[in-house]
Amino acid sequence: MSVTYIDSPELVKPYGFSHAAVVPASAKLIYIAGQVACNVKGEMLADGDYAEQTYLALNNVITAVESAGATARDIVNLTLFVVGHNDENMAAVYKGLGKASKEHDLHRMAAAYIGIDKLVVPTGLIEITAVAATED
Is the pLDDT of residue 60 over 90? Predict the structure, then answer.
């Protein structure tokens, strides 16, 4: 399936993401609920580690995408909700994203990074939602 990623010259040059993703009307869209860094038993992992929680949460997103019949490369949008946003934490989040991106050969996609006060999971530092698009 052909997804077109657009970086408008009228907007700031994006770093690590695209401004827009255009998905064909025939695509099957898959919406992934917020994923955190927990295992199959619901136990939170990597307490206090932004990079590792990001890596694990994104891996959980990819697992959900794959369970819906798509692949990591079919992800067209990510939204990251990050507790305690500051420059140091943002750098760690990008480190975790980079690790998972290399491992799963992810591409630049439409994305948003949103700083928040807390998650429902008390030790959670990041939650990631996604949209994937694949052939119907």
Answer: yes
